[in-house]
């Protein structure tokens, strides 16, 4: 049973209020020949920089996001020996504790699956046109992935506003002005953001 | 405006295959467009009309999600951005860190826009 590349790569950008069914994607990549399934689930956490996060809201340039993800999966396949890949990203409001993104990769051996899984989520954060607004009790802010900013490199055009970090934060000053004064702290997500990694490997 | 190497090193190895895939997409899109608009009429015009998309913070700053933009034939994406900046000065707040996508692919500033192209203003992304 030889499935084509398309059949073995599942990419889904989910509409608002559609929770990511993690089991569905894990099952979609399972196969008798795969000894490993590596997964990554990105989950909204309840605080950022001491502020209470109410929810995250995602939006995407959907056709381009799908196109980029296909390209990323294709290059992952050229680098590692993989069986199936599934990538799902949720849009709209995502309550704290829910998964916003999920990657599942199957391979004969775990090192291929694990390395490819990390590559795919790293590339997603660096180049797939999806945006998240973090909503606090007293304001909101568009987040910026450090993976994207690093890949852009130093700005070739001198900008008086030092990139886009300034005047980005719209948080009411109920905790004093220090939040407004340190946009960098808001900006660099460090890619952690309460993510958890689950590795389901079987012999 | 920046020219980010948004295609990773690993992807670069495959760029020939990817380009083919994208190019075929472009052909299909053009074929669709021809059904809607007379190509010969466009060629004789001195200007082209593109569609501009604003996402996330760019949309918040401009107050619009998308709009048509008419520019002289032969204009580049950079030319388009100058026109957009003059129309929406507030967008300059993030001018140093936005990147552009032309027909769903990241582009350099020198790309020439064609009639019915789709130019997307991409502020720093934050997926995941």
Q: Your description of this structure?
A:
The complex is a heterodimer of chains A (203) and B (128). Chain A is of the alpha+beta class. In chain A, 30% of the residues lie in helices and 32% in strands. Chain A contains six helices and eleven strands. Chain A has helices spanning 22-29, 62-79, 110-127, 146-152, 178-181, 183-187; strands spanning 9-14, 36-43, 47-48, 51-60, 85-90, 92-95, 99-107, 130-136, 139-142, 170-171, 196-201. In chain A, helix 2 (62-79) packs antiparallel against helix 3 (110-127) and helix 3 crosses helix 4. The longest helix of chain A has 18 residues, at 62-79. Chain B has five helices and five strands; from the N terminus they run H-H-H-E-H-E-H-E-E-E. The two termini of chain B are 25 Å apart. At the A-B interface, strand 4, helix 2, helix 3, strand 8 and helix 4 of A face helix 2, helix 4 and strand 4 of B.
* Count of helix runs of chain A: 6
Q: What is the radius of gyration of chain A computed over CA atoms, rounded to a whole number of angstroms?
A: 18 Å
Q: What is the SS-derived class of chain A?
A: alpha+beta
State the end-to-end CA separation of chain A. 21 Å
Q: Name the chain pair whose interface involves the most residues.
A: A-B, 57 and 41 residues
Biggest β-sheet strands, sense, barrel of chain A: 6 strands, antiparallel
H/E series of chain A:
EHEEEHEEEHEEHEHHE
Element order of chain B: H for helix, E for strand: HHHEHEHEEE
Number of strands of chain A: 11
Low-confidence stretches of chain B: 12-41
General form of chain B: globular
Number of continuous helical runs of chain B: 5
Give the strand order of the largest sheet of chain B, numbering strands 1, 2, ... along the chain.
2-1-5-3-4
Question: What is the terminal-to-terminal distance of chain B?
Answer: 25 Å
Q: What class would the helix/strand composition of chain B place it in?
A: alpha+beta
Average pLDDT for all residues of chain B: 77
The main sheet of chain B comes to:
5 strands, mixed
Mean pLDDT of chain A: 80
Oligomer: heterodimer
What global shape of chain A is seen? globular
């Amino acid at each position: 049973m030889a499935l084509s590349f398309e059949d073995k790569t599942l990419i889904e950008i989910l509409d608002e209020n559609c929770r990511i069914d993690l089991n569905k994607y894990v099952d979609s990549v399972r196969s008798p020949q795969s000894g490993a399934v590596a997964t990554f689930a990105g989950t909204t956490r309840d605080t950022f920089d001491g502020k209470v996060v109410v929810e995250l809201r995602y939006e995407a340039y959907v056709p381009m996001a799908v196109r980029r993800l296909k390209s990323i999966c294709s290059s992952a396949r050229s680098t590692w020996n993989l069986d199936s890949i599934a990538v799902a990203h949720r849009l709209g409001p995502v309550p704290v504790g829910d998964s916003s993104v999920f990657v599942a990769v199957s391979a004969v051996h775990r090192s291929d699956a694990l390395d490819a899984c990390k590559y795919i989520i790293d590339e997603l954060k660096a180049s797939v046109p999806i945006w998240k607004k973090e909503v606090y009790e007293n304001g909101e802010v568009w987040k910026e992935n450090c993976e994207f900013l690093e890949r852009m490199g130093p700005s070739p055009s001198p900008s008086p506003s030092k990139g886009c970090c300034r005047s980005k934060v719209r948080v009411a000053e109920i905790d004093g002005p220090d939040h407004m004064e340190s946009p960098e702290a808001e900006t660099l997500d460090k890619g952690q953001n309460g993510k958890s990694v689950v590795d389901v490997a079987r012999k | 405006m920046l020219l980010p190497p948004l295609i990773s090193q690993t992807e670069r190895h495959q760029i020939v295959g990817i380009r083919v895939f994208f190019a075929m997409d472009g052909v299909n899109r053009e074929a669709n467009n021809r059904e809607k608009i007379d190509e010969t009429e466009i060629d004789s015009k001195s200007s082209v009309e593109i569609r501009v998309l604003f996402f996330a913070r760019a949309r918040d700053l401009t107050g619009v999600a998308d709009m048509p933009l008419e520019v002289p034939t032969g204009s580049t994406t950079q030319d388009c951005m100058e026109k957009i900046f003059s129309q929406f000065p507030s967008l300059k707040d993030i001018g140093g860190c936005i990147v552009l996508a032309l027909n769903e692919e990241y582009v350099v500033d020198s790309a020439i826009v064609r009639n019915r192209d789709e130019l997307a203003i991409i502020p720093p992304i934050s997926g995941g």
